[in-house]
Structures are given as structure tokens and as C-alpha cells.
Amino acid sequence: MKNLLNVIIFSVFFISCQSNHPDYDRNLATAKKLFQLHGEEDLEAQLALVSKDIESISPIYGSSSNDYEGYKSMLKAYHDGFEDIQYTANNWLPGTDSLGKLDGSVRTYGNWTGKNSATGKEIDLNGYWYFNFDNDGKVIVQGDFFDFGGMYDAVYPKNLIFAQVNIKKGKASDMIEILNSEGGLPATRAYDGCISAEMVYNEESNTAWIVSNWATNDHYLRYLDWRMNSDQYKIVEKMTPLMEGGENGLVLAHTNSNYSSY
User: Residue 69 pLDDT more than 80?
Assistant: First the structure.
């Protein structure tokens, strides 16, 4: 019984020691301040709270982590893109290292509200964010978990480009193979400024439709110039013999305006 009592006392003492990392309160205040300054769009004050060696993990599918300059650009893009942004935390939580030991890091999940500056559409975004700190109390690792694609589709403006590919009879499989090849739509998607690229084939009309979304129309025009003049894959050259009317079989609709969604 005495041994059991000792074990209980030790366990309570151990848990008590683990419940508070000596740096947690300081780091929690920094994390809260970072969110507050984000709502105030005070970029320089935000950057004063982070390390020059920061690694920022983006929620965007397939993206790589950002360094200090990338993190700075991301913050500025949110400041420029939104008005009245405000974070409401459901919880602030202490974080642990890979062994489950409290390490002074801060985690939070909650809700962002605000309005997109270009479209006027309001966001109602739930997510999870974490902050790791260096010995000086500055943020050294920061990560986001939320539905970026859903948020983007809901509130951001779009520059949609439509391409109609009229295919010769019996050449659909060849055309689709070219469009799906490394130099086809995957290269389009990888080009600077391309946000998305999708293709669908209609068997009844023997037509392929391509819809792409670009950061700006200028980004698309630079891409189009590359495709027509210096594309190392020579995709347009490969497509031309497979299209009805040759080059006239490719119909582009760009410099579009009055985008709206419902």
C-alpha cells in the first residue's frame, strides 16, 4: 500500500511538472499578438515576432514550405486580399515534441472572418494553426491546416480561360494522350500564374474542353506566348494535325470579364 501511495504521489508530481512548460505563457502571448497584428494588418510588427529562419507550412495541396521571404509575402497577400480579418479562437493549446513532451509550442483552432477586397465576399473559415519557438521566443516554425481550395473558390476572383479543341474523327484518343502528357496540361498547370487546369472530353461532339484559372490575364498571355513560340514540348504543333481545320480547330476565349459565382 505504501508503494502504491508513493507511485500515486510521484505520478501527480510528474504530471504537475509536465502541465506547464516554462516558456509556454510567453509563447502563448506571442502567438495571440501575432493573430491580433494580422487583423490590424501590421506587417512589420508581425515580422518582429518571427525568426529570420522561420519555416512556414502552407495548407495548399502540393506546395513546399516557405522561408522568411515567402512567409512575409504570404502575410502581405492576406493583408492586401482581405478587409476586417479577425480570428476567434475556440481553444489555445500547449504543444509537444515528437515524444509527447511539452516543448513550449502553441496550437490553436478557431475561426477567421473577413471580407475579400476584390469580390466583397465574406469568409467563415475554420482551421488549426501551430507555432514552434526558438530560444529567443520568436516563431521558428508555423503551420496552417484549413481548406484553402474551398476558401479560394468561395471568395477569390477568378481569371478563367476557356479552350475548345475540335478533334478530327478517330483522333480523340491521340489528342487526349497529348493533352495528358508531361508537356500537355501538367505543364500548363505548372506554369507561373496557373492556379488550376481541367479538361473534359465530349464524345458526342468529339470536342475537348479545357478550363484554366490564372492569377491574372497577363500571366495567361505570357503562357500563351510560350506555347506558341518557345514550347520545348511542341504541343500545339503535335495537336494541329489532329484538329478539324488545323490550327482553326483550337478556339480560345480569354481576356474574359464580369466573373461571378452563386
Answer: yes
